[in-house]
Predict the 3D structure of the following.
Amino acid sequence: MADLPLDSPRVVALKSRLFPWWDDNARDLPWRFGRATPWGILVSEVMSQQTQMSRVAPYWITWMNAWPDARALAKASTAEVITAWGHLGYPRRALRLQECARVVAEQYDNRLPQRYEELIALPGVGDYTASAVLSFAFGTRIAVIDTNIRRVLSRAALGVESLGGAATVADRKLANDLLPRDSKESNVWNQATMELGATVCTAKNPQCEICPLYEKCNFVAAGKPGLAEGRTRPRQHFKGTNRQVRGLILHALRSKTDMEPVRYQELVKLWPKSAQLDECLMSLDADGLIELLPDKAIRFPK
DNA sequence: CTCCAGATCC
DNA sequence: GGATCCGGAG
């Protein structure tokens, strides 16, 4: 792959168009523009893993109001945490976030560490989240690699469709090659590129006609070869899967106003296939999302 | 139907 | 690398 020097005309042109677009079009999400602590930024990133930002915002406000810092979240009950997670999906993220809060509270005196190696060692924090926190919360110059940035950079700079699947070495090299040298600019670059991918340069139907990069986009110049052919991930069903059943089970628990257990008989009415139901009860119990009682009644863990 | 600001396990 | 884990907006 050809190198793309930072000072190449193409990169300068992309930057000069992307930054003004960001100034005019950045969504006013509650954790942006210096209004959140580093911990708040981390919470927003964890909530946003596989969940759209627009859905995250109201949950984040309620969550941060209840538990403003890691110490507060560390002291919450599991039942409160799972309930507050609501319908964000993938509730194991909520448990990991609380585990993360405990580590931060106990080992880091309630302050997020600022080294990549320490961040990525935290529960529920992978490469993306660690990089995002470093860039967005601490202003560190680091390339953020997510599905949006991979798609935008691959299209605009290389003129080819992003393949999807796990991030490749080439993806990382490209993101690092294009990342502005100045830390403040790199922060804006990361956020603006992600925002563009989320709102304009989308996977299936990009709105090229309103894209600030249109005139300089190599993907447009090449005639958008293979648009949306690269699957972002293997197709995932939902209906009939254990994920649906697990969701139904947790919804039954959440809907209880008190901490009263849910009887197995009620669960069977929600999902008559008892073998799958039992499997899901076992896995939820193993995950620590429910407590399985001897008669197959369930309740939230303490 | 599609896709999502991923992490984790195998 | 592949599979699993949720749920809603478009």
